């Protein structure tokens, strides 16, 4: 890149426009040094000397600077727009930061473009250009406050030097001072445009609240007024989240304006809880929801705001749990509530429970307090359990996520519990709830092959399903369930159903399942190995049952070779440290031998155990055994196999020959290879 830049500076006609266009694409590279060099190339070629309108005589230096800066910004906008990469502004700003930092940190100019009416010589920004200027403005603020690296562009842990830290602190102070003055006007101007407003609401997150003193109180009050107006008017989730994060920063313990921001939040919450309480009195009668459309809209709007703030702050003192729980009770008793209202209510109550768990044990806790908290937790889990069978999928999924969150949080609290705080909050999910969680995952995550198309159009023309979003949603659900296992909320054996799908859904969920397997092994090596055994044996028994009945295997039943391949993949997860895994591997072999021969009595030469073919699956783990352990396992095998069966060469005994050879390290099992590799009914019949 440096060489190309030197060539371009020396010989202007060597590189074509197509060459430049290709080179400039590297500003979006994940390798930051390359992206920064491409950014310098871009700045030198397009931004350093852009075309500037002819100046009138007597034009001041300030106007000339403004015209030059405006020309650079328009050139940057044109470059970005032509590339049509509308989700990579952060990467573009990061690439240009080292070479065009002074331009990007000219926040006074950027905000003047948005607040000052253009002069007669200036062309007003279009709506698209205005939106991009706002996005670049926020990206530059983030870059100044947090600095590189961006997510996906990290080359390792960066150690910030004292000079860089001082520069970052100075930039934070400057942006705080500037935006405290202009942000209230910007919030007012764009108060009706939620899409643009959300960018401005994010800026206070980067304020340096511990350096600016009382002289900015008036500006802070104006800013809080703008924040209040924004959350009062809009219910967009991204906008509410941005506002909540900004409030959170202004309420920081070291903030000079903590009392002002906290008072503003308190007034908002008090107003919303009063509104919600009044609405519920009018909309609920005898346990039935009777609200009209206007009342539904008002309740939903208030719920969204309470949920957003409850995510960041404990709202227990305003009675949020009791208030919102009424909605869930009404839905479970009589139904009829809008779907979005149910999901918001579930989220809000979930946050209440999480805050209670977080606060429980901070001081001395009484038995009565523990019983009350457990009663709340059990009641919420029961509500979520019932919602798992709701007719609407979005409600079922929200209930599952909420259940997973509170159960994992409760488990973590027990692990970190300080005995000096008193009695812990004990709660164990009922077996039927545990089964419901597993059933939910099998139904909503591991869908059939017919669901794996990249797009699907509904019969009623509902549009194309977004496959990446659907996969992301299913991955989140599976990850939530796996957390329940690794946090010991669910029995480790319940992971067997997940491990069964390791090969079939390897591309979609392989990383999640493998990480779960590794975590369970860290928790308990033997129990984790038993779970693998359970997984393989259940798959084997199901396949054998299908073939014994003579029915055609359904799509959910794996073939013999796929089970064998799954065992091979499981064996690979033990790595190369045979000593570390010897107990687990020995247990897998002993359990497998017992599974095949337990209770078997040989009646004739051609009479073999019904599950003998399982030994070929078990042989996939033989290569991981130490030589000494192979001898021990072989001796254990001989206890179950008589001399007659050991020397028998009948076809029905081929799996035993193959398994014995895998333990002895000989070529004795080569004759059984063709038998092992086919998916025939004959294979399992013996």
TrEMBL record:
Record SUPFAM superfamilies: ARM repeat (SSF48371)
One Pfam family in the UniProt entry: HEAT_SCC3-SA
A GO CC term assigned to this protein in UniProt: chromatin
Gene Ontology molecular function, alphabetical: chromatin binding
An annotated GO BP: sister chromatid cohesion
Signal peptide: none
Domain Cohesin subunit SCC3/SA HEAT-repeats: 91-355
Family indicated by similarity: Belongs to the SCC3 family.
PANTHER family: COHESIN SUBUNIT SA, STROMAL ANTIGEN
Protein name: Cohesin subunit SCC3/SA HEAT-repeats domain-containing protein
